Amino acid sequence: MSAQDDALRRLLSGDKRFVAGKSEEPHGAAIIERRHTLAKDQKPFAVIVSCSDSRVPPELVFDVTLGDLFVVRTAGEVVDAVGLGSIEYAIEHLGTRLVVVLGHQRCGAVSAAVSGGTETGDIPDVLKAIMRAVEETKGQSGDPIDNAVRANARDIAKRLQTGGPIIPPLVRTGEVKIVAAYYSLDTGQVELLK
């Protein structure tokens, strides 16, 4: 069996356990009960814009469960038009009033942007979106990757507050709050960024 077939088998086996109410997760029974409750409606209390990095699953980082978060994940937490539309949907249609842009320690996408890596396919679009933070932090003391990760989260949060027709008016009236944050892989702690 190939590695790809094994990975697919693992996913489908997990789904079978989930459907059957036999989750192997420590809180599996509660999650399955919650799944039934959420089948017809959702009211996530926060939007999390985070990196796709497998080490940064927002539901686990923030110790919440199914249905609590509306999560938009891309490499380097880059927000394009589709990501922005997703955030707007959560705010306008689901009533979510908090958006957290979560950067993280040792982000591979930011590291590639800092090093000026040459990539193929559509990966350069991700790196280009991060370059503003890289340029902003050039020459600062400290770790260049860590500095750029923090600047990237702050820049994305700032752009969300000022871009598009839906979010900025709600931010101005105080109905929606947008914050930037940093997740430490080493400690597990989330730090709010100024």
What is this structure, in a nutshell?
The protein has 194 residues and is of the alpha/beta class. The protein is 49% helix and 15% strand.
Question: What does the model show?
Answer:
The chain is α/β, with parallel strands linked by helices and 194 residues long. It contains 8 helices and 5 strands, in the order ααβαβαβααααββ. The chain has helices at 3-20, 28-38, 58-61, 81-94, 108-115, 123-137, 144-162, 167-172; strands spanning 46-51, 69-74, 98-104, 177-183, 190-193. The mean pLDDT is 94.
What ranges have pLDDT less than 50 throughout 5 or more consecutive residues?
none
What is the averaged pLDDT score?
94
C-alpha geometry: globular
Helix and strand run: HHEHEHEHHHHEE
What gap, in angstroms, lies between the N and C termini? 49 Å
Which value, in Å, is the CA radius of gyration? 18 Å
Biggest β-sheet strands, sense, barrel? 5 strands, mixed
Number of DSSP helical runs: 8
Helicity level: 40-55%
Spatial arrangement of strands, main beta sheet: 2-1-3-4-5
β-strand number: 5
**Main structural class:** alpha/beta
Q: Roughly what fraction of the amino acids lie in strands? A: 15-25%
Identify the notable features of this structure and list them briefly.
5-stranded mixed sheet; 194 residues; alpha/beta; 5 strands
Note the topology:
Elements: H1 3-20, H2 28-38, E1 46-51, H3 58-61, E2 69-74, H4 81-94, E3 98-104, H5 108-115, H6 123-137, H7 144-162, H8 167-172, E4 177-183, E5 190-193
Parallel strand pairs: 1-2, 1-3, 3-4
Antiparallel strand pairs: 4-5
Helix pairs in contact: 5-6, 6-7
